[in-house]
Write a structure and sequence with these properties.
heterodimer; A: mainly alpha; Amino acid/polyamine transporter I; 22 helices; 72% helix; B: mainly alpha
């Protein structure tokens, strides 16, 4: 007998497979593709870096992406619910991922806000030629030293106001739901981002010195391949670039219809993400080649990444190039769009988790989640010490949040719960690209080895000297303290019981899914009569 | 640009963008299943 609530709630869904693919690409293509990849590749041997990069993509990135899709689609839930359905004791992993997304969301939003302001500044060269660096730190951010002032409460309006606008915009998108909000935003922003970026690349290629930049970017340094550090940075980069292992792809794939080609879609997402990175590498290094020529130095003298590349090098290029304003508007506009589509995917991990947990409606959950996040984001990142907090939180949550949870998750799923065969079967039942023993080997053996190596080297680096030269108390709070708190709070959250209204206890749609697929019924939701279940997947 | 840089650029474009095209073609050959999912059994 179907329960009375069966008509009240239906899991949200993407409008079509293409909307899902576009949204997954929107999530994967973020700031890292634009400002991180070009420099990582340049540092890691230029053209020769392609070899470790493709290896990392094929042996770690894509297999882990498939793993996330399989977990989300098989267990049809946000990260905590999906892991709980896999095994009750695995639930803290999901909350850990949710909390990682909380941290990333609060600082990611402020970078989007900076980029939005710089789109405007580019149009009128607000910074004044030659003053780009000083403008960013002193005039725009009004940066203060945490060692002197502590965590500041001085409000910087030119950051705080756009930050508030960014939050309002993403809250509206989130409140509209998966189909009308996230799906539609990606359907509009992703084609726009691609066109803008393509124009930017073409324009950069016509700058004087552009070919020198490309030469520096693609000239292979084969010796780099003998350096294990270069291989580690390729794996590390692929891993962050694809947004795997922190709940996003699990959440998004839980919104897919029952019969969806999971691996076929995943391949498109993975190669589209890498395709965008190559495009970004070409655009960024063409522009850096121009900058080097204009300053009479080598490309090596101007190459940089991250905030320095975006907010110091690019404004310099905008000041010096003919038609620089157009380059600036396209570049910062692209950062805004790439950032927004990634930010909403990060927020969706949190919103979906609480929706499953509380059984609340979309709007109520969105507002309950996003408004406190917006307040924390405003409090920490619209002040004069924003940059130090951002830098520290980002470095620590990447290494000891994302990387650590990924390592623990693959070990738990592969070696403790032995779920890879079940997930492999689930992928193959509906997908065009079949996965076999090799996939299990890559996820169960190579991924833990690589992630373990990366994690230990990060641990050694961050213990051996204080990160970024920040004071000890500051690193203990926003670095070490924060990453440890994520684990502790994750465990505590998994101890909070799920109410009878939550999707863990009452989910007729999931019961129906299990029934049609001939999977064993879920011990907790089990409201659906088990008609055709087989003894397959006995471990569940 | 030096010849070796041009060759590496072409290889990068062909492998990554070629991979993207191959993935899109593969997906197009497997169109999304129409919503033929059976109606849930009506309960008495």
């Amino acid at each position: 007998m179907a329960t009375a609530s069966s008509q009240t709630r239906k899991r949200e869904a993407f409008g079509s497979r293409n909307v899902f693919i576009l949204s997954a690409i929107g999530s994967a293509v973020g700031l890292g593709n634009i400002w991180r990849f070009p420099y990582v590749a340049y540092e890691g041997g230029g053209g020769a870096f392609l070899i470790p990069y493709l290896c990392a993509l094929l042996t770690a990135g894509i297999p882990l992406l498939f793993l996330d899709y399989a977990i989300g689609h098989r267990f049809r839930g946000s990260a905590p619910l999906a892991f709980r359905r896999m095994h009750k004791a695995a639930e803290p992993l999901g909350w850990w991922q949710v909390l990682i997304c909380v941290v990333i969301a609060v600082y990611y939003a402020v970078i989007v806000a900076w980029a939005a302001m710089y789109t405007w500044f580019s149009a009128q060269l607000t910074w004044g030629a030659g003053n780009e660096e000083n403008f960013f730190f002193a005039d725009f951010l009004k940066s203060a030293d945490v060692a002197e002032v502590g965590v500041s409460t001085d409000f910087v309006p030119q950051v705080g106001i756009p930050l508030a606008v960014v939050w309002v915009a993403v809250i509206v998108i989130m409140a509209l739901g998966v189909k009308r909000g996230i799906g539609r935003a990606n359907m509009i922003l992703m084609p726009l981002l691609t066109v803008m970026f393509a124009i930017l690349v073409v324009q950069s290629l016509f700058l004087p010195g552009a070919m020198e930049g490309l030469n520096a970017f693609f000239t292979p340094n084969w010796e780099a391949l003998a350096d294990p550090g270069v291989w580690a940075s390729a794996y590390g980069h692929i891993f962050f670039s694809l947004s795997v292992a922190f709940g996003i792809m699990v959440t998004y794939s839980s919104y897919l219809k029952r019969k969806t080609d999971l691996t076929g879609s995943g391949l498109v997402v993975a190669f589209a993400n890498s395709g965008f990175e190559i495009l970004a590498g070409i655009g960024v290094f063409a522009a850096l080649g121009f900058m080097a020529q204009a300053q009479g130095t080598d490309v090596s003298g101007v190459a940089s990444s991250g905030i320095g590349l975006a907010f110091i090098a690019f404004p310099t290029i905008v000041s010096q190039a003919a038609g620089g304003s157009i380059i600036g508007v396209l570049f910062f506009g692209a950062l805004v769009f790439a950032g927004v589509t990634s930010l909403i995917s990060i927020l969706e991990v949190i919103v979906a988790a609480l929706q499953d947990k509380l059984g609340w409606g979309r709007i109520r959950t969105t507002l309950t989640v996003s408004i406190p996040l917006a307040v924390i984001s405003m409090a920490l990142f619209s002040t004069t010490t924003a940059l130090s907090v951002l830098d520290t939180a980002d470095a620590f949550v990447n290494s000891f949040g994302i990387m650590a949870v990924a390592l623990v998750a693959v070990v738990v799923v592969a070696w403790i719960l032995h779920k890879l065969p079940v997930l492999q079967e689930h992928l193959n039942r509906r997908s065009s690209f079949r996965v076999g023993f090799l996939w299990k080997l890559l996820v169960g053996a190579l991924a833990p080895i690589v992630l373990g190596y990366l994690l230990i080297s990060e641990l050694v680096a961050k213990i051996s000297e204080p990160y970024g030269g920040y004071p000890g108390w500051f690193l203990s709070v926003f670095g070490w303290g924060m990453v440890i708190a994520l684990v502790v709070i994750g465990v505590l959250l998994s101890l909070v019981p799920w109410s009878r209204r939550s999707n863990a206890k009452d989910d007729p749609e999931y019961d129906e899914f299990l029934d049609i697929e001939n999977y064993d019924p879920d011990p907790e939701t089990g409201t659906f009569p088990v008609l055709g279940s087989t003894d397959e997947e006995a471990r569940a | 640009m030096t010849p070796v840089a041009i060759i590496m650029m072409i290889i990068a474009m062909v492998t990554v963008w070629g991979g993207l095209i191959a993935a899109v073609v593969n997906l197009a050959r497997h169109p999304e299943a129409a919503e033929t999912e059976p109606v849930p059994p009506t309960e008495l």
